[in-house]
User: Fold this.
Amino acid sequence: MANIIIRTFVSIIIVFCALSVGKCMIAGKEDPKSKKPSTVVPQVDTLELTKANFSPEVRSYGNVQSYFETTLSPQVNGRIMSVSPSFRVGQTVAEGEILATIDDIDYKAALATQKAALILQERTLAEEKIRAKQAGDDWKASGRKLSSASEFVLRKPQLAAAKANIDSVMATITKAEADIQRTKIRAPYNAIITERAASVGNFANAQSMLGKLVATEKAEVRIPLTADQMNRIEFDQKGEKLELTLTSPSNPSVSWKAEFSQMEPTVNPQNQVSYIIGTIENPYESKTNPLPVGSFVNVLLPAKEIKDAYKVSESALVNDSYLWIVDENDELIKVDAERIQSSGDSAFVRVDSDKVKSSIRVVTRPLSTFRSGMKVNWKKEKKEAEPEGKRGPK
Assistant:
């Protein structure tokens, strides 16, 4: 029992001593010094921009349409005797080239019949001339004045009828000769065949479709433009034709040229879009990169020049009203910006000239935490934003 009391007493003394030592150590420890938080300087990407004049192109689209498109139908009836090797889909044919021929035996027979009729009518006319002269001589021989004789007695109606019969036969001969020529189906102009239905042995008539072709000399593209786009284009080129550039989404590395030819006089009432027509010369001239009818194309049109502006990325223009720029002290400045127009991912703006010089360093991706006068670390982006639109009017 005595041992238990002793051990308990010793334990209490040890705990008390440990608490006393810990209290002394805590009392002797110095209070920690407060640290001032470090300032965070944001990293930003910038572009060096210079005030300049720009002529950004207006972008639109359209479908290539044929300038001439013809459905070949015969003007005479008959069996098809031959079809030209050129009369195949995709083949180019020249104006006047024979594409197919129709049996012309019946039309040659009709021509021969009319030529025989002409000889008979000419003989009849010669006989009437003799009778008319004899009638006049007989009338004068009777002692009467020729002026008192009726036209019928002098055989003038008979003579006129004989002449009319000759004119009628000659007109029939002309038609018969034309029918013989019409048995040869010819290309009406330089064209490319888009469809063929003619085959040797088929019977052709005026309701038959022998084929379809489109002109290779010209094609057209109908281009929609908004009111804003119309105002940006200088249609009056002082004697020069407005030139358009066409590209195909399927082959963007190739381009074609077109010329503005006319403006449609009406506006689409649903979307208030106007249409202009561009003419493409010789769209099939290139054997490797032709521009087929029906192709969808993107269209670039030269626009009016924008003077004393900056070309910035859309991401740099905040709320469509201001830019953040970095001054020579690496501090942010907020400047008002007025959008003049847009082109793709870029905007052409004018800024408050009182706060900036000709050359400015624009932050391309500003943050919502930016404040005027804030220090930043900046780096210059490799890609410049100027070359695409920095060009004079054509």
User: Anything to note?
Assistant: Confidence is low (pLDDT under 50) at residues 384-394. The chain has four domains: 45-55+306-380, 58-65+216-301, 76-100+188-214, 105-182. DSSP finds four helices and 22 strands in the chain.
